[in-house]
Amino acid sequence: MIRSTDEIRAGLSLAAAQVQALLDPLDNRILLCHALDVSRVSLITQSERTLSAEEAARYGALVQRRLRGEPVAYIVGQREFFGLPFEVSSAVLIPRPDTELLVELALERLPPQGRVLDMGTGSGAIAVAIAHSRKDAAVTALDVSAEALEVAGRNAAHNHCHINFLRSDWFAALAHQPRYDLIVSNPPYIASGDRHLGEGDLRFEPSGALTDFADGLTALRTIIAGAAQHLHDGCWLLLEHGYDQAEAVRACLTQHGYLEVQSWQDLAGIARVSGGRLAMPALSA
Protein backbone atom coordinates (compact mmCIF):
# COMPACT_ATOMS: atom_id res chain seq x y z
CA MET A 1 0.00 0.00 0.00
CA ILE A 2 1.42 3.37 -1.02
CA ARG A 3 1.44 5.67 1.99
CA SER A 4 1.64 9.39 2.47
CA THR A 5 2.33 11.49 5.55
CA ASP A 6 0.22 14.19 3.88
CA GLU A 7 -2.95 12.10 3.63
CA ILE A 8 -4.91 13.66 6.47
CA ARG A 9 -3.76 17.19 5.64
CA ALA A 10 -4.67 16.58 2.00
CA GLY A 11 -8.28 15.85 2.88
CA LEU A 12 -8.62 12.14 3.67
CA SER A 13 -11.19 11.87 6.43
CA LEU A 14 -10.19 8.32 7.30
CA ALA A 15 -6.82 7.00 8.32
CA ALA A 16 -5.19 4.61 5.87
CA ALA A 17 -5.83 1.65 8.17
CA GLN A 18 -9.53 2.49 8.35
CA VAL A 19 -9.74 2.84 4.58
CA GLN A 20 -8.22 -0.60 4.08
CA ALA A 21 -10.61 -2.10 6.63
CA LEU A 22 -13.70 -0.62 4.96
CA LEU A 23 -12.80 -1.03 1.30
CA ASP A 24 -12.55 -4.27 -0.60
CA PRO A 25 -8.82 -4.76 -1.37
CA LEU A 26 -9.50 -4.97 -5.10
CA ASP A 27 -11.57 -1.77 -5.00
CA ASN A 28 -8.79 -0.07 -3.07
CA ARG A 29 -6.16 -1.10 -5.62
CA ILE A 30 -8.29 0.00 -8.58
CA LEU A 31 -8.97 3.39 -7.01
CA LEU A 32 -5.32 3.92 -6.13
CA CYS A 33 -4.19 3.01 -9.65
CA HIS A 34 -6.76 5.42 -11.06
CA ALA A 35 -5.77 8.24 -8.71
CA LEU A 36 -2.08 7.85 -9.60
CA ASP A 37 -2.71 6.97 -13.27
CA VAL A 38 -0.52 3.88 -13.02
CA SER A 39 -0.98 0.22 -13.92
CA ARG A 40 -1.33 -2.57 -11.37
CA VAL A 41 2.23 -3.69 -12.13
CA SER A 42 3.55 -0.15 -11.62
CA LEU A 43 1.70 0.06 -8.32
CA ILE A 44 3.48 -3.07 -7.09
CA THR A 45 6.90 -1.92 -8.23
CA GLN A 46 6.37 1.49 -6.58
CA SER A 47 5.11 0.08 -3.28
CA GLU A 48 7.43 2.32 -1.23
CA ARG A 49 6.48 5.48 -3.07
CA THR A 50 5.21 8.39 -0.99
CA LEU A 51 2.14 10.19 -2.26
CA SER A 52 2.20 13.92 -2.78
CA ALA A 53 -0.50 16.01 -1.14
CA GLU A 54 -2.25 16.36 -4.50
CA GLU A 55 -2.19 12.61 -5.14
CA ALA A 56 -3.42 11.86 -1.64
CA ALA A 57 -6.28 14.32 -2.03
CA ARG A 58 -7.25 12.79 -5.37
CA TYR A 59 -7.19 9.28 -3.92
CA GLY A 60 -9.11 10.41 -0.86
CA ALA A 61 -11.89 11.89 -2.99
CA LEU A 62 -12.25 8.58 -4.84
CA VAL A 63 -12.35 6.65 -1.57
CA GLN A 64 -15.10 8.87 -0.21
CA ARG A 65 -17.20 8.29 -3.32
CA ARG A 66 -16.80 4.54 -2.93
CA LEU A 67 -17.64 4.65 0.77
CA ARG A 68 -20.88 6.43 -0.15
CA GLY A 69 -21.69 3.39 -2.28
CA GLU A 70 -20.90 4.63 -5.79
CA PRO A 71 -19.81 1.71 -8.01
CA VAL A 72 -16.09 1.51 -8.70
CA ALA A 73 -16.80 1.18 -12.42
CA TYR A 74 -18.56 4.56 -12.46
CA ILE A 75 -15.82 6.19 -10.38
CA VAL A 76 -13.05 5.12 -12.75
CA GLY A 77 -15.30 5.18 -15.84
CA GLN A 78 -14.37 1.71 -17.04
CA ARG A 79 -15.12 -2.01 -16.65
CA GLU A 80 -13.62 -5.04 -18.36
CA PHE A 81 -15.98 -7.47 -20.09
CA PHE A 82 -15.05 -10.53 -22.16
CA GLY A 83 -11.42 -9.44 -21.94
CA LEU A 84 -12.13 -6.00 -23.44
CA PRO A 85 -12.18 -2.53 -21.85
CA PHE A 86 -15.51 -0.70 -21.81
CA GLU A 87 -16.35 2.87 -20.95
CA VAL A 88 -19.24 3.05 -18.49
CA SER A 89 -21.22 5.91 -17.05
CA SER A 90 -24.48 6.41 -15.18
CA ALA A 91 -26.22 6.27 -18.60
CA VAL A 92 -25.60 2.51 -18.88
CA LEU A 93 -25.55 -0.63 -16.80
CA ILE A 94 -22.20 -1.92 -15.61
CA PRO A 95 -21.31 -5.08 -17.61
CA ARG A 96 -21.20 -8.14 -15.39
CA PRO A 97 -19.35 -11.46 -15.74
CA ASP A 98 -22.66 -13.40 -15.73
CA THR A 99 -23.52 -11.86 -19.10
CA GLU A 100 -20.43 -13.39 -20.69
CA LEU A 101 -22.45 -16.64 -20.80
CA LEU A 102 -24.84 -14.97 -23.26
CA VAL A 103 -21.92 -13.96 -25.48
CA GLU A 104 -20.44 -17.47 -25.41
CA LEU A 105 -23.78 -19.05 -26.37
CA ALA A 106 -24.24 -16.47 -29.13
CA LEU A 107 -20.82 -17.18 -30.62
CA GLU A 108 -21.58 -20.90 -30.67
CA ARG A 109 -24.83 -20.34 -32.60
CA LEU A 110 -23.90 -17.54 -34.99
CA PRO A 111 -23.30 -18.95 -38.50
CA PRO A 112 -20.43 -17.76 -40.72
CA GLN A 113 -21.06 -14.25 -42.09
CA GLY A 114 -24.15 -14.22 -39.89
CA ARG A 115 -26.28 -11.21 -38.99
CA VAL A 116 -26.83 -10.70 -35.25
CA LEU A 117 -29.04 -8.23 -33.38
CA ASP A 118 -28.37 -7.10 -29.79
CA MET A 119 -31.51 -5.56 -28.28
CA GLY A 120 -31.11 -3.03 -25.46
CA THR A 121 -27.36 -2.78 -25.97
CA GLY A 122 -26.56 -0.27 -23.19
CA SER A 123 -22.77 0.07 -23.09
CA GLY A 124 -22.54 -2.14 -26.17
CA ALA A 125 -20.75 -4.86 -24.21
CA ILE A 126 -22.55 -7.82 -25.81
CA ALA A 127 -22.48 -6.44 -29.35
CA VAL A 128 -18.84 -5.38 -29.16
CA ALA A 129 -17.74 -8.69 -27.63
CA ILE A 130 -19.45 -10.58 -30.46
CA ALA A 131 -18.13 -8.26 -33.18
CA HIS A 132 -14.61 -8.39 -31.77
CA SER A 133 -14.66 -12.20 -31.64
CA ARG A 134 -16.33 -12.67 -35.03
CA LYS A 135 -14.94 -10.25 -37.59
CA ASP A 136 -17.08 -11.90 -40.26
CA ALA A 137 -20.37 -11.11 -38.50
CA ALA A 138 -22.67 -8.18 -39.29
CA VAL A 139 -23.69 -6.83 -35.89
CA THR A 140 -26.60 -4.47 -35.23
CA ALA A 141 -27.31 -3.08 -31.76
CA LEU A 142 -30.25 -0.99 -30.63
CA ASP A 143 -31.28 0.95 -27.58
CA VAL A 144 -34.01 3.47 -26.77
CA SER A 145 -31.51 5.71 -24.94
CA ALA A 146 -29.52 8.17 -27.04
CA GLU A 147 -27.04 8.58 -24.17
CA ALA A 148 -26.46 4.82 -24.02
CA LEU A 149 -25.90 4.66 -27.77
CA GLU A 150 -23.24 7.38 -27.52
CA VAL A 151 -21.38 5.30 -24.93
CA ALA A 152 -21.81 2.12 -27.00
CA GLY A 153 -20.53 3.88 -30.11
CA ARG A 154 -17.36 4.97 -28.33
CA ASN A 155 -16.83 1.44 -27.02
CA ALA A 156 -17.17 0.00 -30.51
CA ALA A 157 -14.66 2.51 -31.88
CA HIS A 158 -12.21 1.98 -29.03
CA ASN A 159 -12.30 -1.79 -29.58
CA HIS A 160 -12.06 -1.40 -33.39
CA CYS A 161 -15.46 -2.93 -34.12
CA HIS A 162 -17.93 -1.95 -36.81
CA ILE A 163 -21.49 -2.07 -35.46
CA ASN A 164 -24.71 -0.67 -36.89
CA PHE A 165 -26.36 1.23 -34.04
CA LEU A 166 -30.06 2.06 -34.09
CA ARG A 167 -32.14 4.10 -31.69
CA SER A 168 -35.26 2.03 -31.23
CA ASP A 169 -37.91 1.12 -28.68
CA TRP A 170 -37.43 -2.62 -29.13
CA PHE A 171 -38.62 -3.54 -32.67
CA ALA A 172 -39.95 -0.10 -33.65
CA ALA A 173 -37.07 0.85 -35.98
CA LEU A 174 -36.62 -2.58 -37.60
CA ALA A 175 -39.48 -2.54 -40.10
CA HIS A 176 -37.20 -2.25 -43.13
CA GLN A 177 -34.19 -4.16 -41.79
CA PRO A 178 -33.25 -7.59 -43.23
CA ARG A 179 -33.83 -10.60 -40.99
CA TYR A 180 -31.17 -11.81 -38.57
CA ASP A 181 -29.44 -15.13 -37.98
CA LEU A 182 -29.40 -14.57 -34.22
CA ILE A 183 -31.07 -12.21 -31.74
CA VAL A 184 -29.68 -11.69 -28.24
CA SER A 185 -30.78 -9.46 -25.39
CA ASN A 186 -30.13 -8.66 -21.76
CA PRO A 187 -33.28 -6.59 -21.15
CA PRO A 188 -34.64 -5.02 -17.93
CA TYR A 189 -35.90 -7.99 -15.91
CA ILE A 190 -36.00 -6.96 -12.23
CA ALA A 191 -39.54 -6.71 -10.90
CA SER A 192 -40.78 -3.40 -9.56
CA GLY A 193 -40.33 -3.22 -5.79
CA ASP A 194 -37.57 -5.84 -5.69
CA ARG A 195 -35.39 -5.04 -2.69
CA HIS A 196 -32.22 -5.44 -4.77
CA LEU A 197 -33.02 -2.19 -6.60
CA GLY A 198 -32.24 -0.33 -3.38
CA GLU A 199 -29.02 -2.19 -2.61
CA GLY A 200 -25.39 -2.05 -3.73
CA ASP A 201 -24.42 -0.82 -7.18
CA LEU A 202 -28.00 -1.05 -8.46
CA ARG A 203 -28.88 2.14 -6.54
CA PHE A 204 -26.68 4.11 -8.95
CA GLU A 205 -27.52 2.37 -12.23
CA PRO A 206 -30.26 3.60 -14.63
CA SER A 207 -33.54 2.20 -13.33
CA GLY A 208 -35.04 1.87 -16.81
CA ALA A 209 -32.28 -0.55 -17.76
CA LEU A 210 -32.85 -2.64 -14.65
CA THR A 211 -36.62 -2.93 -14.20
CA ASP A 212 -39.72 -2.91 -16.38
CA PHE A 213 -41.60 -1.25 -13.48
CA ALA A 214 -43.91 -4.28 -13.51
CA ASP A 215 -43.40 -8.01 -12.94
CA GLY A 216 -39.94 -8.16 -14.54
CA LEU A 217 -41.12 -10.13 -17.58
CA THR A 218 -42.60 -7.35 -19.73
CA ALA A 219 -39.54 -6.76 -21.93
CA LEU A 220 -38.84 -10.49 -22.18
CA ARG A 221 -42.41 -11.15 -23.39
CA THR A 222 -42.19 -8.28 -25.89
CA ILE A 223 -38.94 -9.59 -27.38
CA ILE A 224 -40.17 -13.19 -27.60
CA ALA A 225 -43.45 -12.14 -29.18
CA GLY A 226 -41.81 -9.95 -31.81
CA ALA A 227 -38.57 -11.72 -32.62
CA ALA A 228 -40.06 -14.23 -35.05
CA GLN A 229 -40.75 -11.43 -37.55
CA HIS A 230 -37.04 -10.53 -37.58
CA LEU A 231 -35.34 -13.94 -37.38
CA HIS A 232 -34.56 -16.34 -40.19
CA ASP A 233 -36.29 -19.70 -39.85
CA GLY A 234 -34.35 -22.13 -37.70
CA CYS A 235 -32.29 -19.42 -35.98
CA TRP A 236 -31.83 -18.72 -32.28
CA LEU A 237 -33.21 -16.19 -29.82
CA LEU A 238 -31.14 -15.98 -26.60
CA LEU A 239 -32.22 -14.01 -23.53
CA GLU A 240 -30.59 -13.22 -20.21
CA HIS A 241 -33.03 -13.11 -17.29
CA GLY A 242 -33.33 -13.14 -13.50
CA TYR A 243 -32.36 -16.01 -11.23
CA ASP A 244 -35.98 -17.14 -10.79
CA GLN A 245 -37.37 -16.46 -14.28
CA ALA A 246 -36.05 -19.35 -16.36
CA GLU A 247 -39.24 -21.42 -16.17
CA ALA A 248 -41.44 -18.47 -17.15
CA VAL A 249 -39.18 -17.53 -20.07
CA ARG A 250 -39.06 -21.10 -21.35
CA ALA A 251 -42.85 -21.30 -21.16
CA CYS A 252 -43.17 -18.07 -23.15
CA LEU A 253 -40.73 -19.31 -25.81
CA THR A 254 -42.65 -22.60 -26.12
CA GLN A 255 -45.96 -20.74 -26.35
CA HIS A 256 -44.63 -18.76 -29.32
CA GLY A 257 -43.54 -21.88 -31.16
CA TYR A 258 -39.80 -21.94 -30.47
CA LEU A 259 -38.08 -25.32 -30.53
CA GLU A 260 -35.15 -26.78 -28.55
CA VAL A 261 -36.14 -24.45 -25.71
CA GLN A 262 -33.66 -24.66 -22.84
CA SER A 263 -31.80 -22.72 -20.15
CA TRP A 264 -28.10 -22.46 -19.40
CA GLN A 265 -26.43 -21.93 -16.03
CA ASP A 266 -23.86 -19.29 -15.16
CA LEU A 267 -20.72 -19.98 -13.12
CA ALA A 268 -22.75 -19.79 -9.90
CA GLY A 269 -25.05 -22.56 -11.10
CA ILE A 270 -27.99 -20.18 -11.69
CA ALA A 271 -30.14 -20.55 -14.82
CA ARG A 272 -29.14 -17.21 -16.34
CA VAL A 273 -29.89 -17.51 -20.09
CA SER A 274 -32.79 -19.16 -21.88
CA GLY A 275 -33.43 -19.50 -25.57
CA GLY A 276 -34.98 -21.38 -28.42
CA ARG A 277 -34.74 -21.92 -32.14
CA LEU A 278 -37.40 -20.48 -34.45
CA ALA A 279 -39.33 -23.30 -36.08
CA MET A 280 -38.76 -24.09 -39.73
CA PRO A 281 -41.88 -23.83 -41.92
CA ALA A 282 -43.61 -27.11 -42.59
CA LEU A 283 -42.98 -28.57 -46.05
CA SER A 284 -46.09 -28.84 -48.20
CA ALA A 285 -47.03 -32.32 -49.36
UniProtKB/TrEMBL annotation:
It catalyses: L-glutaminyl-[peptide chain release factor] + S-adenosyl-L-methionine = N(5)-methyl-L-glutaminyl-[peptide chain release factor] + S-adenosyl-L-homocysteine + H(+). The keyword S-adenosyl-L-methionine applies. PANTHER family: HEMK METHYLTRANSFERASE, MTRF1L RELEASE FACTOR GLUTAMINE METHYLTRANSFERASE. GO terms for molecular function: nucleic acid binding; peptide chain release factor N(5)-glutamine methyltransferase activity. PROSITE patterns: N6_MTASE. Methylates the class 1 translation termination release factors RF1/PrfA and RF2/PrfB on the glutamine residue of the universally conserved GGQ motif. Its EC number is 2.1.1.297. S-adenosyl-L-methionine binds at residues 120-124, 143, 170, 186. Residues 24-77 form the Release factor glutamine methyltransferase N-terminal domain. Transmembrane segments: none annotated. Residues 99-193 form the Methyltransferase small domain. InterPro entries: DNA_methylase_N6_adenine_CS (IPR002052), HemK-like (IPR004556), N5-glutamine_MTase (IPR050320), PrmC_N (IPR040758), RF_methyltr_PrmC (IPR019874), SAM-dependent_MTases_sf (IPR029063), Small_mtfrase_dom (IPR007848). GO terms for biological process: methylation. Keywords: Methyltransferase, S-adenosyl-L-methionine, Transferase. It comes from Duganella fentianensis. It comes from the Bacteria. It is an enzyme of class 2 (transferase). The keyword Transferase applies. Belongs to the protein N5-glutamine methyltransferase family. PrmC subfamily. Substrate binds at residues 186-189. This is Release factor glutamine methyltransferase.
